[in-house]
């Protein structure tokens, strides 16, 4: 039996309770949300090989391709000459010795190039042509023995650009550019449009080709499909729609581990993620591949703008994943200054130095920012340096922006929050992270019920029930929902929360490439062509779509219990009592509309009949709305080939009164909307 007490005003529900957390992991942006289709577009992904690129040689053409890298230092003159600028220092050289047949370069995309009917793609690239053969490599030679390349007439002329099947037999879209005679780099742009009869496929490649001999150089090769809100350099439409449906209130970015980087020199380089793509060299990522940084600081902010989310900016705080750190004091000052500049880029007006830069980048209006996170998971910093580092950042930020809230990554009492204490500055908000199996989440669903209300506020900045891979299954969704009932009931304390990781490209390993994802439990999955939400995704969407502004206290009696399954070994959960509840619930009310939202999780394999008592309710409509997410067994899940196996089912229900009975399905998460009159 559940008794909802409508006589006592409950705690306020945080209006920012549910948001998103994001970082470049599992090909979240490159090969994910960021719509660029060309993998390794500036040829820097791998210094030893032109990864994702291959040579096209047909009809007797003789040709080769080679990376040309103008690394700083003592490199051959020929290579230095091929850099476009300090960011675009590596290019691809195509040497065509015998023409007549087709010769060119092909890009495989991020596990394929998605081809859709009636679709216009924007292609662009830098190219220059010469008839000179590559110079002999003589780095010590101050005067090159070979003359500066001179454009031969045969390189100038049409260059064909196409999207075609991997065997080259079907051309889905093609066009030409007219390569002019020039020794200098020049950017060419064109549109490629597919026909109405094209069948969707990702078994396709992008090709730039010629039938003329010569030496051709390529850089910054780009191909964009239509993007969300038609933003140039924008995001994939299908994934943005999935996110928009979640109605997220904020976006925590850029990490996570991606903020920190493997070494002190690898932190998220926000400055070189700004402006034209020509100025973005990319950088060493944290998850085993090299991010292009096409998703840069302004793109994160515009993503927030598109989905009406408030940015929650994490600033690098001088601690890297290899355990190295910068001590508080003069050495840390440049890092604090850098964070202040970054904050100014986000929220400074156009009269500030960095606000003016943002305006020059096309966004004069400042973004609203109320929370800044100092670092990420600094509980792993065994030196204990975070106490001093946090204080120095806190003082610097508060001096310039007194209204900004500084989130600490340690200083609370739980998990990483418990690893280390803050003694110099008191944390206002502490970020706590939880990754556990379903048993662990359900065992600890009441985690925040008895927290001290007079200390810091809690930001659950990363959490997930880790069941099912690469996207989570129904059992995870049950664990998530149980955990969310606890956060929602305590959302006077838990002011913000966000699931992590958000995205995974679900492509499997091939004989030549590793799988696309690195983390095992993720919310939204996709390949080049389509995307889907996990059962956990639908739980997130349900919880955030149906929520009031006040918590309604609920008392439960005779709640079914469960005992710990033998294979559950989560160390934190092992300390929990056993048995634990197998049903979880929370209720909130919208005091403006009078709507009540009762969420009930039934983690048992049997339908459960529940008496519901609306104590103190006024006039009620007998009709309400029921949303149910359920499956036949806990392992049920959604996949790229079966994306809608578990989705919410919305129905009208009747028979609602001050006391009524409802049966909640086995393995289900339900939301019952009750309308007061
Ligand atoms: O969400 C995946 C990783 O988990 C994050 O990058 C890191 O902060 C945490 O350890």
UniProtKB/TrEMBL annotation:
Domain Alpha-L-arabinofuranosidase C-terminal: 461-668
Any one of the GO BP annotations: L-arabinose metabolic process
Key words, A-Z: Glycoprotein, Hydrolase, Signal
EC number: 3.2.1.55
SUPFAM superfamilies xrefs: (Trans)glycosidases, Glycosyl hydrolase domain
Gene Ontology molecular function, alphabetical: alpha-L-arabinofuranosidase activity
Family recorded in the similarity comment: Belongs to the glycosyl hydrolase 51 family.
Protein name as annotated: non-reducing end alpha-L-arabinofuranosidase
Species per Swiss-Prot/TrEMBL record: Mucilaginibacter mallensis
């Amino acid at each position: 039996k559940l008794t909802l007490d409508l006589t006592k005003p409950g705690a306020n529900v945080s209006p920012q309770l549910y948001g998103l957390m994001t970082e470049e992991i599992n090909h979240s942006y490159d090969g994910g949300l960021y719509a660029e289709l060309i993998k390794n577009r500036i040829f820097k992904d791998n210094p030893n090989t032109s990864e994702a690129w291959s040579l096209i040689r047909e009809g007797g053409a003789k040709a080769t391709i080679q990376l040309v890298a103008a690394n700083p230092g003592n490199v051959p003159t020929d290579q230095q000459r091929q850099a476009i600028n300090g960011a675009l220092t590596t290019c691809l050289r195509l040497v065509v010795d015998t023409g007549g047949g087709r010769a060119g370069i092909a890009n495989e995309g991020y596990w394929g190039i998605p081809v859709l009917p009636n679709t216009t793609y924007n292609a662009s690239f830098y190219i220059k042509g010469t008839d000179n053969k590559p110079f002999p490599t003589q780095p010590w030679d101050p005067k090159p023995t070979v003359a500066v390349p001179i454009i031969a007439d045969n390189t100038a002329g049409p260059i064909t650009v196409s999207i075609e099947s991997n065997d080259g037999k079907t051309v889905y879209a093609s066009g030409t550019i007219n390569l002019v005679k020039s020794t200098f780099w020049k950017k060419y742009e064109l549109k490629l449009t597919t026909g109405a009869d094209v069948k969707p496929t990702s078994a396709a490649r992008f090709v730039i080709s010629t039938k003329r001999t010569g030496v051709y150089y390529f850089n910054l090769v780009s191909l964009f499909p239509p993007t969300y809100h038609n933003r140039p350099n924008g995001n994939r439409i299908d994934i943005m729609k999935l996110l928009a449906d979640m109605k997220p209130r904020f976006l925590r970015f850029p990490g996570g581990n991606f903020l920190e980087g493997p070494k002190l020199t690898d932190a998220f380089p926000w400055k070189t993620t700004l402006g034209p793509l020509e100025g973005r060299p990319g950088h060493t990522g944290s998850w085993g591949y090299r991010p292009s940084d096409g998703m840069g600081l302004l793109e994160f902010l515009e993503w927030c703008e598109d989905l009406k989310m408030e940015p929650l900016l994490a600033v690098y705080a001088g601690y890297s994943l290899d355990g190295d750190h910068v001590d508080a004091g003069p050495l840390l000052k440049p890092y604090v200054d850098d964070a202040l500049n970054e904050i100014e880029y986000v929220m400074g007006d156009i009269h500030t130095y960095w606000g003016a830069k943002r305006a020059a980048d096309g966004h004069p209006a400042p973004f609203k920012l109320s929370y800044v996170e100092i670092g990420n998971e600094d509980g792993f910093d065994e030196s204990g340096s975070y106490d001093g580092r946090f204080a120095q950042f806190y003082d610097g930020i508060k001096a310039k922006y007194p209204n900004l809230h500084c989130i600490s990554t340690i200083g609370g009492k739980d998990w990483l929050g418990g690893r280390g204490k803050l003694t110099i500055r008191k944390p206002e908000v502490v970020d706590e992270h939880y990754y556990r199996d379903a048993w662990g989440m359900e065992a600890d669903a009441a985690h925040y019920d008895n927290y001290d209300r007079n200390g810091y506020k809690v930001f659950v900045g990363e959490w997930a029930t880790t069941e099912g891979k690469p996207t989570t299954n129904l059992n995870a969704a049950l664990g998530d929902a149980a955990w969310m009932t606890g956060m929602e009931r305590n959302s006077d304390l838990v002011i913000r929360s966000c699931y992590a990781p958000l995205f995974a490209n679900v492509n499997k390993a091939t004989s030549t490439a590793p799988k696309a994802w690195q983390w095992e439990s993720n919310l939204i999955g996709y390949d080049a062509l389509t995307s889907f939400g996990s059962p956990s995704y639908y739980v997130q969407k349900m919880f955030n779509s149906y929520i009031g502004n006040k918590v309604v206290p609920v008392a439960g009696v005779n709640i079914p219990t469960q005992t710990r399954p033998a294979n559950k070994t989560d160390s934190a959960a092992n300390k929990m009592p056993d048995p634990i509840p197998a049903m979880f619930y929370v209720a909130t009310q919208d005091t403006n509309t009078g709507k009540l939202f009762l969420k009930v999780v039934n983690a048992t394999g049997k339908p459960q009949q529940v008496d519901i008592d609306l104590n103190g309710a006024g006039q009620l409509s007998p009709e309400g709305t029921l949303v149910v997410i359920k499956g036949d067994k806990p392992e049920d899940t959604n996949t790229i080939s079966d994306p809608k196996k578990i989705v919410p089912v919305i129905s009208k229900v009747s028979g609602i009164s001050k006391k009524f009975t409802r049966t909640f399905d086995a393995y289900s998460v339900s939301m019952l909307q009750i309308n007061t009159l």
